[in-house]
Amino acid sequence: MAIKLNHTIVHSLDQREAAKFYAEVFGLPAPSPFGPFLDVNVANEVTLAFLNADGMEIQMQHYAFLVSEKEFDQIFGRVKQRGLKYWADPGQTQEGEINHHFGGRGVYFQDPSGHLLEIITKPYS
Ligand SMILES: [Fe+2]
């Protein structure tokens, strides 16, 4: 199988604020403009293409990132530093907690547009 997810559009209230948020919180390279998009690339060659929703209603999406233990500490540290709310579950009922599914660590938080982000150190299996 040679099919790989290459890019996805992340509808945002403010594409600059959103792209900067991802780059800073995840420790990724600075966003680069591509047409109307602001692109942020992750390690497995997937581009997150931030686009202003321009008045369209934003449908909440869920984006999950597999990270190392060290990256989890760094990213989660930035989440807490920013005073963001975080949850152990996608239903956002266990506030201020993380989970330990599959022998790793996982946590959920929101981006500036309300998309639900997740970092995990072990993939779902
Ligand atoms: Fe998930």
Q: Can you lay out the helices and strands and say which pair or pack?
A:
Elements: E1 7-12, H1 15-26, E2 32-34, E3 37-41, E4 47-52, E5 62-66, H2 69-81, E6 106-110, E7 116-120
Parallel strand pairs: 1-4, 5-7
Antiparallel strand pairs: 2-3, 3-4, 6-7
The structure holds fe (ii) ion.
List keywords for this structure.
four-stranded mixed β-sheet, binds fe (ii) ion, 2 helices, three-stranded mixed β-sheet, 125 residues, alpha/beta
- Summed over residues and divided by their number, the pLDDT gives a mean of 97
Major β-sheet profile = 4 strands, mixed
- The helix/strand order is EHEEEEHEE
Helix content: 10-25%
Enumerate the spans where pLDDT stays under 50 for 5 or more consecutive residues: none
Distance between termini? 19 Å
Strand order of the largest sheet: 1-4-3-2
Quaternary structure type: single chain
Number of helical stretches of at least 4 residues? 2
What overall form do the CA principal axes indicate? globular
Q: How large is the share of residues in beta strands?
A: 25-35%
Hetero groups in this structure are: fe (ii) ion
Radius of gyration (Å): 14 Å
The tally of strands reads 7
Structural class: alpha/beta
